[in-house]
Specification:
This protein is mostly beta strands. The chain is built from one helix and five strands.
Length: 59
Amino acid sequence: MELKVIGLSDIEKMQGEHCLIIISNGQMKSVELPSFGTIVIESHCNKVKQVKEEVKQLF
């Protein structure tokens, strides 16, 4: 999982994709969603501090 810095014009290019767009502290970043798993966004003082991907093994 890689967070990429994007601009407003990039959002239109993402049509048809499955992604998450985060706007925090004057920055806008996007990440492609995994096929399966959980994305956790941690914040502190009203700002995004960390984005984690949790993938669990199915039995």
